[in-house]
Design a protein that fits this description.
Layout lengths: L1 H19 L4 E3 L3 E8 L3 E10 L7 E6 L4 E5 L9 E9 L5 E11 L5 E11 L6 H5 L4 E3 L3 E8 L4 E9 L7 E6 L4 E4 L10 E8 L5 E11 L6 E11 L2 H11 L5
Parallel strand pairs: 2-8, 10-16
Antiparallel strand pairs: 1-3, 3-6, 4-7, 5-6, 7-8, 9-11, 11-14, 12-15, 13-14, 15-16
Length: 255
């Protein structure tokens, strides 16, 4: 009888310990001041954090207060005592003046929702001379959008866009940002010379269901038109497999 009670007590304690195990996010700082940023530059800061708890931390989502701020984060579980980071990039192009933007971090930690802040002042860039404008590179996209059709939530789909540098000097892609923060990119490793073609690869991982229209802004060193826009469309569902099963079930059965 005593052995039975002892076993129950041990099980109770183990369950209690498991329910109490939880990660704790501790940021070195939750506000970063860029001070001054020259207009046209992409200001980036890494917010580092430590898991001060006793269970792994998984960051489920990071959202910015505007499309001009693009967050990235550690997707792998952060074990107790280990570090992770949230990267916040602010695209200052066409946004002179003071700014304050927030990034909301959602996780399974005990402090499940935290807010980070970036701020600073964008200093207007000097106006280009007529000669500089005439010798500027120029990006011409072959297509300015793509519809992925029906895809699963959190599925990553890839589309490559071809462009030509119709300007007179080398073209560089400075940054690619999306309103959803769910698009990453891979561009040319070096500048694209005058008259040559380049490829921009966009990787889209939607987080919201139903019809989506994502605006992707490309920033280059084109002095006449420094930003280009690509629209990505998709119908996002929880599971394509479930939809296929439902479709099969709705088919008429021949006799």
């Amino acid at each position: 009888m005593k052995v039975k009670y002892l076993t129950l007590f041990i099980l109770f304690v183990s369950v209690l310990l498991k329910t109490q195990a939880q990660g704790i996010i501790k940021f070195a700082k939750d506000v970063h001041d860029f001070s001054t940023v020259t207009e046209g530059k992409v200001a980036t800061h890494d917010f580092e954090f430590t898991n001060d708890g006793n269970a792994p931390i998984i960051i489920s989502n990071v959202t910015a207060s505007c499309g001009c701020t693009t967050p990235f984060w550690t997707h792998e579980p952060v074990l107790p005592g280990k570090k992770g980071k949230i990267s916040a990039s602010y695209n200052s192009n066409g946004r002179p003046g003071a700014f304050t933007k927030t990034i909301t971090v959602t996780s399974n930690a005990s402090n499940a929702s935290l807010v980070l802040t970036i701020k600073g002042t964008v200093v207007p860039k000097p106006k280009a001379s007529p000669e500089e404008l005439a010798n500027s590179p120029s990006m011409k996209l072959e297509t300015e959008g793509h519809n992925f059709g029906k895809i699963e939530k959190a599925q990553t789909v890839v589309k490559s866009f071809t462009f030509t540098n119709t300007g007179k000097t080398d073209l560089y892609i400075k940054n690619v940002a999306s309103t959803c923060g769910c698009v990453t990119f891979k561009g040319p490793a070096s500048g694209v010379k005058s008259g040559e073609k380049g490829t921009l690869e966009l990787r889209y991982s939607p987080r919201t269901l139903n019809q989506q229209n994502e605006r992707v802004t490309i920033t280059t060193n084109d002095l006449n038109n420094s930003t280009q826009v690509i629209m990505l469309q998709a119908t996002v569902v929880e599971s394509l497999a479930q939809q296929n099963i439902l479709r099969e079930q709705k088919r008429a059965v021949p006799f």
